[in-house]
Write a structure and sequence with these properties.
Elements: H1 5-9, H2 14-27, E1 33-34, H3 46-55, H4 71-85, E2 95-98, H5 100-112, E3 118-122, H6 127-135, E4 139-143, H7 151-160, E5 168-172, H8 184-196, E6 200-204, E7 231-236, H9 237-240, E8 249-253, H10 255-268, H11 274-285, H12 289-311, E9 324-328, H13 338-349, E10 351-352, E11 354-355, E12 366-370, H14 375-395, H15 402-405
Helix pairs in contact: 2-13, 3-11, 4-11, 5-6, 5-10, 12-14
């Protein structure tokens, strides 16, 4: 396996190391509170499941579907963008349904990347943002993840010192893993930057509906006039409707880029199972009370996480969006790095989190905590952490230098 060219280009999958320790602990009888993977535990809406059941077995639904998505689903996504963002899209040319946003992103990378092409990617960022281009033969150059004015001088330096000139820039807000949220003003500057440097913009908006300030929902980059000239945006049903395993997402925006994506997909898949697409259409066209309930659930969990972990001695930043908290490792453990600290949490606190190094080297002082357990389990995790912290100075001197533990 290690001799295969594309496999050699991929770094070790660090999350798997934590998963192995977690599995071993559970096999030994440990009750692990798993806040590692961003895998929604909430049920899909009942009306969506009912539509799936109603459609399965109907004539023709077992046949191959359309790789770019059935017409009704693409129309429903276009209608969602007009309702939510005030952005009008042509469902025939500016919307492509994908097998989740991850597949869409990876295949877009295949469509637009030539060997050696340079792509600007936030660091830390969701792994597919970099690895999709690495697998396509591209080269990654890091830019800051935080959407502040400081982003642009750093991005200018990245463009100036890249040979060949970068072809694309990736952004993700609300961010996985950092939970940063971009403003429309930032997107305006970003579109101007992309046009100045002739860059393709790829925006990951998978967490568009997971936000906690009702007066300030996250914007779409396509709200910027002229953004559609250079941008494609990826969204997903996974978090908005708790349909992660259904594998339905979308790419919307620039017609030329989407035509390239559709061409690649036409060689690789026949689209999602038709009843799943019909049910996803019902989700997008249906009532939005289920979305409000989802947001309220994650907000309650976020508040419990911040409050209970704070009492346990671990102060967590309060995320304003996404289903994650991006948390600095406590100072006394920071020298271990995020992978070893995450292993310690499994072994000593029965808690699984995602090590920040898995999202890029600039994430190694952090861990990502996902809001994928109920409030009771989150409080249990906090009690476990408190017990671990209270005993760490006397029990971990062989792991943590004594100078760090006092």
């Amino acid at each position: 396996m290690s001799d295969f060219h594309r496999i050699k280009r991929l770094p070790p999958y660090v999350f798997e190391q934590v998963n192995r320790i977690k599995a071993a602990a559970r096999a030994g009888g440990a009750d692990i509170v798993d806040l590692g993977m961003g895998n929604p535990d909430l049920p899909a809406p009942k009306h969506v499941i009912d539509k799936l059941v109603e459609t399965v077995g109907k004539p023709r639904t077992d046949r191959y579907s359309a790789s770019k998505g059935i017409v009704g689903l693409r129309r429903a996504q276009a209608a969602y963008y007009e309702r939510r963002f005030g952005v009008k899209l042509n469902p025939d040319t500016q919307v492509v349904a994908t097998l989740g946003s991850k597949e869409g992103f990876a295949n877009m990378a295949q469509a637009i990347t030539a060997p050696g092409d340079v792509v600007l990617v936030p660091n830390p960022s969701y792994p597919i943002h970099a690895f999709g281009f690495l697998m396509a033969g591209g080269v990654i150059r890091s830019v800051p993840a935080e959407p502040t004015p400081a982003f642009f001088p750093a991005a200018e330096r990245a463009v100036a010192h890249s040979i060949p000139k970068p072809v694309a820039l990736v952004v993700c807000y609300p961010s996985n893993p950092t939970a940063y949220v971009a403003s429309l003003d930032f997107y305006r500057d970003l579109v101007a930057f992309a046009k100045k440097h002739d860059l393709i913009l790829l925006s990951d908006l998978a967490y568009s509906e997971v936000y906690f300030d009702d007066s300030n929902p996250p914007p779409s980059i396509l709200q910027v006039p002229g953004a559609i000239d250079v941008a494609v945006e990826f969204t997903s049903m996974s978090k908005t409707f708790s349909m992660a395993g259904w594998r339905i997402g979308f790419a919307v925006g620039n017609e030329r880029l989407l035509a390239a994506l559709a061409r690649v997909k036409s060689y690789l898949d026949y689209g999602a199972f038709t009843p799943v697409q019909v049910a996803a259409t019902a989700a997008l066209n249906g009532p939005d009370d289920c979305i409000r309930e989802m947001r309220a659930t994650y907000k309650r969990r976020r508040d419990v996480l911040i409050e209970s972990f704070g009492k346990a001695g671990w102060a967590l930043p309060t995320p304003t969006a996404s289903m994650f908290a991006w948390v600095p490792i406590p100072e006394k453990f920071r020298s271990l790095g995020s992978l070893e600290f995450s292993k310690l949490l499994v072994e000593k606190a029965d808690l699984a989190v995602a090590p920040g190094i898995g999202f890029g080297e600039f994430g190694d002082d952090y861990v990502r905590i996902a809001l994928v357990e109920n409030e009771q389990r989150i409080r249990q995790a906090a009690r476990n952490v408190r017990k671990f912290f209270d005993g760490a100075d006397s029990t971990l001197h062989n792991i943590i230098p004594l100078s760090k533990a006092v």
